[in-house]
């Protein structure tokens, strides 16, 4: 099985102090300036991960910027720092890089980061979609609902998770309604689903 690296970052300065205790005695602005200049580094190694398909290991790699810094600093600077963290993971031997916390949110949700790394990049959305669909099917089964014949509603359909779920459900049900605020995005998704599955979905922005 392939190895992985997961990029994490300090949510706030207290997380930095747990790793570098001596920094708590410095003014906040100095600490923020210091971590801004720090290079990403390996925090820990994860071993003993087993499944019926094999065994793997991975690493936590930190991108030394707090959540506030990721929002307030120039986007190019933040993305470059995350890319550097991804390259640390690659050098450790990772075949796939997971973006954790704010690293999966800033910018274009990982697209620019993926273009600058050789390893595959994931934000975790694929897992969220899979578990959401599995849970929906299980709930329908427990309630004796035939999804193929049921009226299925996807809330937040134009988001990255909602749109992926809608496109998969369109192949498995006859009646699908998409709900989101942006009518332009709804129309685009509906046309995309029609092209992929032949299903004419209903759209509404009436929340």
UniProtKB/TrEMBL annotation:
Gene3D superfamilies given in the database record: NAD(P)-binding Rossmann-like Domain (3.40.50.720)
Spans through the membrane: none
Top-level division of the source organism's lineage: Bacteria
Family annotation (Pfam families): Polysacc_synt_2
InterPro entries from the UniProt entry: NAD(P)-bd_dom_sf, Polysac_CapD-like
Domain Polysaccharide biosynthesis protein CapD-like positions: 152-195
Name of protein: Shikimate dehydrogenase
Species this protein is from: Candidatus Syntrophonatronum acetioxidans
Organism phylogeny: Bacteria, Bacillati, Bacillota, Clostridia, Eubacteriales
